[in-house]
Amino acid sequence: MMNTNVINNYAKLKCSIFILPLVLLLAIVLFLYREDSLNAYQYTQIQKDCFFFLNHHLGQFPNLEYNLTQIGDASIFLSFLIIFVVYAPQIWEALISASLVSLLFSKILKNFFDVPRPAVVYDNDLFTIVGKTAVGYSSLPSGHSITIFTSLTILLYAFMPKDFKLKFLWFFFIVVLGLFIAFSRVGVGAHHPLDVIIGSIIGYISAIIGIFISRKYKIWHWVGYKKYYPIFIVLILGSGISIISKIVNDQLVIYYLAFISLCVSLYKIVYIYVKK
């Protein structure tokens, strides 16, 4: 039943849904052009005050920000979604395609823009850095933000309510939740604000492309077949080992939650697989 509702919701999406995110990206480009900030140096300098302001205030809650920023790690976020292999495999069909698209966008754009991280541009003693210092020239766009919004947008349209008011509230909730998590990247000192905003928009676009691909091509249709469950069992076990190693190094709440989610999913998938 859940999977049927997801399929029906995805079927309602039209190409016009791309207009809003593309308009937002265009508006950002025009803003940067007007401010003569279409080069890496000016791009970082125009955000300096905003970065320090957000980093200072978000950095007041280092434990919260450090936990939130881990959700942008694909292995962590997807740990909470693995259960949908059983109840709504269409979500995973869209998610796999969307993740590949988002990965392609992230790799190409990071190399193309070559924007330095805050730790490279600013004096590290002047702002909050939580966890390992992010260095290098891969700041734009934020990969964590792309991952977060790719996954959340897949869920956004999978469970979109029919009532208009509920649609608005659901959309508002997902966007606010996504930005709340994504801006933890500024809070831990890893990204500039526009890195996060642009990454979030790209993640949204990646998710829509993934949904359209899954609708048109049945590349991942095997996801919902019981005989292929061993693939996910192996993936869950591998992810569990990875998360255990993370817990050994950092006893973060989000790691424990992800591990519990994996255990529940493993039990459910194994139970269905062995059940006659």
Explain briefly what this protein structure is.
With 276 residues, the protein is an all-alpha fold. Helices cover 71% and strands 0% of the residues. The chain has 15 helices and no strands.
Please tell me about this protein's structure:
- This protein has 276 residues and is an all-alpha fold.
- The chain is built from 15 helices and no strands.
- Helix 14 packs antiparallel against helix 15 (253-274).
- The radius of gyration is 19 Å and the shape is globular.
- It starts with a helix and ends with a helix.
- The chain crosses the membrane at residues 12-33, 68-87, 142-159, 168-190, 196-217, 229-248, 254-274.
Note the main attributes of this structure:
single chain, 276 residues, mainly alpha, Vanadium-containing Chloroperoxidase, domain 1, 15 helices, 71% helix, globular
Write the layout of secondary structure elements.
Layout: H1 2-11, H2 19-34, H3 40-45, H4 48-58, H5 62-70, H6 74-77, H7 84-87, H8 89-113, H9 118-121, H10 143-158, H11 164-182, H12 184-187, H13 193-216, H14 229-249, H15 253-274
- Categorize the overall geometry: globular
Radius of gyration: 19 Å
- Give the percentage of residues in beta strands: under 5%
Biggest sheet descriptor? none
Q: How helical, in percent, are the residues?
A: over 70%
